[in-house]
Amino acid sequence: MQENSYSNWCENLAEISLLSFLAIMLACLGVNAHGEAPAEDYAFVNVNVVPMDREIVLPRQTVLVSGGKIASITASSDTALAPEVE
């Protein structure tokens, strides 16, 4: 029974990580009506990050997107955001 619970937990974590990744990619790839990257800065706070070069999940990260590109990825506990960041 425990193995099934662990398997479900892993599947849920994978789904949440995938959704987080997709949300970040949509923000990074977004363009305005003039074909330019959005000027706003966005922060995805307390998300799980799955690096593409390692088989690991980085939990509780803050991903800052600026000018349509990922500007930084830091631990949420170590991150202070400016008031203008959404």
Summary tags:
single chain; 1 helix; alpha+beta; 3-stranded antiparallel β-sheet; 86 residues
Report what the structure shows:
There is one protein chain. The chain is α+β, with helices and mostly antiparallel strands and 86 residues long. It has one helix at 2-29; strands spanning 41-49, 58-66, 69-75. A three-stranded antiparallel beta sheet has the order 1-2-3, with helices on one face. The mean pLDDT is 75.
Quick gist of this model?
The protein is an alpha+beta fold and 86 residues long. Helix content is 33%, strand content 29%. The mean pLDDT is 75.
Q: What order do the helices and strands come in, and which of them pair?
A:
Blueprint: H1 2-29, E1 41-49, E2 58-66, E3 69-75
Antiparallel strand pairs: 1-2, 2-3
Roughly how many Å apart are the termini?
42 Å
User: Fraction of residues in helices?
Assistant: 25-40%
H-E string: HEEE
Q: Which geometry do the CA atoms define?
A: globular
Strand order of the largest sheet: 1-2-3
Q: Helix tally? A: 1
- Could you report the average pLDDT, rounded to the nearest whole number? 75
Q: Assess the beta-strand content as a share of residues.
A: 25-35%
